[in-house]
Specification:
heterodimer, A: about 475 residues, alpha/beta, twelve-stranded mixed sheet, ten-stranded mixed sheet, globular, B: about 250 residues, Rossmann fold, six-stranded mixed sheet, four-stranded antiparallel sheet, 8 helices, about 30% strand
Chain lengths: ~475, ~250
Amino acid sequence: MGKDEARDAVGDYRYGFHDPENAVIKFDKGISEQVVRDISALKNEPEWMTEIRVKAYHHYVERPMPDWGNMGLLNSIDFDAVTYFLKSSSGTAKDWDDVPEDIKNTFDRLGIPDAEQKWLGGVTAQYESEAVYHSIREDLEKQGVLFYDMDSGLREHEDIVREYFCSVIPYSDNKFSALNTAVWSGGSFIYVPKGVHVELPVQAYFRINSENMGQFERTLIIADEGSSIQYVEGCTAPTFSTDSLHSAVVELIAMKGATIRYTTIQNWSTNVYNLVTKRGVAYENATIEWIDGNIGSKLTMKYPSVILRGEGAHAEVISVAYSGEGQHQDAGSKVIHLAANTTSNVLSKSISKNGGRSSYRGLVKVSPKAHNCKINVVCDALLLDENSRSDTYPTMEVANSSCRVEHEASVSKVSGDQLFYLMSRGHSEAEAMGMIINGFFEPFTRELPMEYAVELNRLLEIEMEGAIG
Amino acid sequence: MAEELLKIIDLEVSVDGVKILKGLSLRIKSGEVHAIMGRNGSGKSTLAFVLMGHPAYEITKGSVTFRGKPLEELNVFERARAGMFLSFQYPQAIPGVQVGKFLRKSVQAVRGSAAGSAREFRTELNQAMESLGVDRSFLSRYVNDGFSGGEKKRLEILQMLLLHPQLVILDETDSGLDIDALRTVAEGINEAAKTAGCLVITHYQRLLDYVKPDFVHIMLDGKLVKSGGAELALEVERQGYEWIEAEVA
C-alpha cells in the first residue's frame, strides 16, 4: 500500500470518527453523592453495593491528587465537566441484530462482529457506560464458564461478586480506584470453573462516543483451580476538542495452578485521560500475565500489578508504550513477592516521538518470607528525535537475601546506519523506520493474537508515515 | 552489446569536510567484474557508500550515472529499486525483524511487480539458501542480530541473489570468512556476475582466486592509479603496493 493510499484509507487516527449521540439516559455533568446513589438505583443494585459506592465516593472527594507522575496534566482534568453516566441502549443484546442501528454501525466500523466469528470465544461490547452487546460460545457456557458484563454479573451471581469485588483493589487504594468504585458501570465479570481451559480468547471492546464522557468500567476475573483464560480488551474513542476520562479498575484472581492472561491494546484518541488500576493476585503455582500496549490517550497512568501470594506463583508483565506529540505514557508494573519460589519477569519497551514522553515506573517488592525468588526486569526505551523524552523510575525493595534480582535498562536511538542499511534494500525512510520500531516492539507483538499483531504493526507504520515527509 | 551501467567521471567526495576521493573515474558494463584493491584508508569503502547514497558522503565534483541517469537524482531506496546492490562490510543488526519476512519485503520493494507470488518467492529462496549452505533456521532469526561474521556475509549474498541487481558492489565481502565460506560466497558472486556488473572491493587477493576479475584497479589516496587484468592482482599479492606508489610518484 502506498503512503497516500494508506493515509486515505486509515487516517492519522482511524477510530477518530463519532456517531450521533443518542442517549436513552444521560446524567448531568459532574459528580455528587446523589449522582452515585442515582446510578446505583437505576441499576437496581443490592444495598451493599450502594454502600460501597457511597463510601468510595467520599474517599474520592477527600483523597488528594497523586503528588507524583504528570501533575500538570492530572490537575488540568475538569472533573465537573465529565458526564459520569450515559446509557445509549435500553438493554444488552445477545443477538447482533438487536443492537441499535447507530451503535451497530460504530462497532461494524471497528470490525467487532467479524472478529467474533473468526477467532473469539466470547465478546462484550461496551458503548459509553453500558454493554450493548454480549455473547459467549455455547460450549464455554456448557462447561460452566460465566462471562457477563459486570452489571449482569452482579445481578446473576451476586454472591461471587460480593466475595471478590474490591478484594484485590480496595476502593481506598488510590483516588481513581475510589472514583471508579463510586461510579462504575459496565466492564466484564468472568468466572472459570476448576480445571476448565478456555482456549479461544474472550474479548471486550470499549468505545467512548460522546464528548466529555467518563467511562468507568469494572472488570473482575476469577480463574478457579487449574483453569486458564485469555482476555483481550481494545479501546478507542472519537477525537474531540475537549477531553474525556477513562478510569477503569480490573481485578484478577488466579487460584492454585490457574493461568490468566490479560491483553490490552489501548488506542484511545489523544484527548482521553486514561487512569487505570489493574491488579491480580496469584495463588500457589498460578500465573498472571499482563500484556499491555499503550498507543493512544493524552495521559496514561497505569501500572499492571501482580501479588504473588502462593508458593511457586509467576508474574509476567510485557508492556509497550508509544508516545507521540502531546502524549505522556506513564506506565510500568508492580510485582509483590509474598511467597517463596515465586518468579517474575517484566519487560517494558517504549518509543517516544515528536516531543512525546514515556515513563517507566516500576516496583518490585520482596517480603522477608519470600525465599528463593527470581526477578528479571528489562526496560528499553527508543527515542526517535531530540525533542522526545524517556524516564525510568524503578524501585526495588528486596527484604530477602536468597533472591536473584536482575535489572537492565537501556535508552537508544535509531541509528542512521540502520536506516541506510534498510533503505539500501529498497525501503523508503518511513518504511525503514516502521521496520525498526516494529522490530523493537516484536517481543510484545508476538504475544498478541495474530489479528491484533497485524493491526498494531500497521498502526505503527502509519505513525511513521506521518513522521517523515 | 553489453550495456554501460556505471559511469564515474572525475569524482570528488568529502566526509565532514575532508576530501577522500580525489578525482576518480571508472566505467562498468553489464557482465564485467571489476576489482578495486588498495590499502586501508585509501577510500575504497567511501566509493561504495557514495555510490549507494549514504547521506554523510558529499559529492563536491564530478559525476556518477547509473544506466544513464545521474545518481544524485535518486534517493538510496530508489537506487536499490533501480538495480543497485551494496553488500556491506559491516551489515547492521535490526533486532526483532525476522530474516524471512525481511527478505520477502525487500524483494517486493526492489523488484516490485516482478517480485512474483509468495510460492515463487519460497522456491527461489530455498534454492538460493541451498546454494549458499544456509540453514532454514536462519529465516526466523533477527536480521544480523548476534550473527557471526560469516553468517552476516552469507545473508548479504543471499539478499544479492534474491534482489536480482544489475550492479553489485561488494565491500570487503571476503573479510572475516573462513575458506569454505569464502568459496560459497564466491560462487554466489559468480552466479550474479553472469548478468550483472560487479565491483569487488578488497584489500586481499584471496577472493580473486575464486571470483575472476576482468579488470583490476589499484586505488591510492582517493584515485585509481593503475588498471590492468587479473594478473595485476597477483602482482600486488606478491610485491605489495610500494612499487605502484613509486611508479605514480
